[in-house]
Amino acid sequence: MLAVDKCLKVNNDVVYDVTCPSLTTTEGRAAERGRDPPEDRIDHTRSAMTETPSGANPHLPWLDDAVPAEASRIPSMLYPEEKQYLYWTTRHAYEGWGAIVDLGPWVGASSALLAAGLRDRGMSARVQSFDRFVWVRSYMEEKLPEDLPEGGDFLPVFERETAPFAPWIDAERMDLLEAEWNGGEIEILFVDAAKSWELLNAIHRAFGPHLRAGRSRVIHQDFRHFYTIWIPLAIDSRPDVWQQIEAVDDGDSVTFVPQRPLFGEGGLPDTYRQTDFSFSLADEIFRRRLERERTSENKVRLLLGWLRTALLYDQPERVADLRERLAKDPRNIENLTTAEMFSAWDHWHRGDVSRASAIASECLKRTPDDTQALCMSGLCARDRGDHAQAVTYFRRVTSHNPNDASVRICLADSCYQLGDFSAAGEELIAIFRNLSEDSPDQWVQFAFEQLERLWAADTTWPLSSLDDLQARFESSPHLHVFEAIVHYHRGHTEQATNELVRALELAPGHARAEQLLAKLRNGSWQ
Description:
The chain is an alpha/beta fold. The chain has 22 helices and 9 strands. The N and C termini lie far apart (63 Å).
């Protein structure tokens, strides 16, 4: 039982009444607990968001500060106002009694902005920046073309980008799922890494015990982002623990101060999961949060998150209502489709092909050429065994994105299932032309597996079409496994053995190579 007297119940789920006066002022909360308000706490009723006369919107002081150019130029996914806010936080609000921690800085924009405030204030404190520093080409390369391989180390990129602020930044490689913190109390915790329920739980466990009640700022950069619905659910379901003190007018960032220790009596659970929240509870949390938003931009962000939640919980009436509200403004259509497709992918990964297909179909009604919706429709058709329909959808995707190797792999597979080996071969040729050793290993492996299957079904298929394959993939174990298969079927067992040995030299423990080599040596090759 959580220690809050005043609450609202929705279908027997407790929803804390964040509008209750006794829980929204320092004095009221202290009276509720039967003691005087502590003097060393941030005044949450005003904080930095100074109210203006006649009910006008509060003045946001960070809008008065110009962000130093050497910090604002660093590539990031931050909105301009979020950059101003981070700079203001250390330039004006930081008191110096605790650490400044940045979780998920990517190539350093957030760390540099926090460091710039320290520098311009003449302070020697340092920002503690933690990231895995592992390159994900699918979205990072577009934002910052570095030509790094999938999984490459981008810590040197971080150090290059933040070089002007090196005296104020300590960067460390860390997997937050296994994070530990021994740096003392934390005054500012910037979180741009709570990308899953598991990561949010891990961040709470590692850093939460080091937050000072009533004083520490926790800035959730993804609070309003439609994808990370677990953040508003976890935070807004516990206003007895989290008190909002600041929020940008245009962006996803919202800042909270813990009102009590996060763990122990009356604290947070050890873990949060989606199943902890019934839809009636989640629905009420988003409704109340939407009422608090002051700008149309942020209302749209919350509506998209609310829609994603309704889709995940399969609530058709709420989904229809939110779709209608969002679609009234044509400017929302692209984001509406994006939010829906994230939910479609969630359902597909869970094996719910029917729901995923239904969401994709709705998206295609609004945006007939949306490649994500077309791809999802193709995958669902393939999973139902309708490969002819799958080919139709996948070809529409490749007409827009001819270099998308992952879709072409799916297209080649469906062509093969239909017995159209010629079309499958054409797709494989296109795939290999757009792959390299720097491509994600999974794609390279799938492509070679498709090639192996095609060649096994039709050994007359002209391998000469891929004459440059050996030179381009010499260091790929998947190439050598494929060449071993070709050599074996041509009666060249010694060459087949050599290729499998080479594959294992490149990738010790390669399961397919070990399996085939054992069969070859035992004379049991199929």
